[in-house]
């Protein structure tokens, strides 16, 4: 299964949830935000190299840690050299070699968001709890629908006060889960230690596992 994690706007914690979902699903996470990568990086071939034809996607996956990852480069030159048309084949190759793949997609409606959505079996839309978020989520779902990608779940992220989860679920037609604002989540990416592993009984871990369960159900 290839799962795309998408959002209508940046800054909603999409990369963090991609990392945590990959841990919960036992999947490889691919940082596919070619211009604004957020997931951990280590020396070696990265997605920029893969999309420039300089590296094999399977060999570029870093395994052995708590989450296997195909990182993305950080340079403008690397982003310019990357051919996004090669992304679909790269994701399929990683899936064939490693199993489930979670793709941290660029935010918004950019062309490089559409490519992973077109190849993905399902997607999770990450939304802010703010008032404009439902409209953004609807636009993102419509893009996924146009590209033949089903919506597995909606994650309303960084929640402090109560949010109308039923409205998200009813309008978007998929289970909606709220993930609380919690410093442990942002620290998890920095430390490369997912909360679902380090604090399995915490509320954020419980909600992320709910999202993972919704993804599994959608794939049946």
UniProtKB/TrEMBL annotation:
Q: Which residues form the CobQ/CobB/MinD/ParA nucleotide binding domain?
A: 3-195
The UniProt entry, under Pfam families, shows: CbiA
Membrane spanning segments where? Answer: none
Task: Report what the protein is called.
Answer: P-loop NTPase
Please name the source species.
Haloferax chudinovii
Taxonomic lineage: Archaea, Methanobacteriati, Methanobacteriota, Stenosarchaea group, Halobacteria
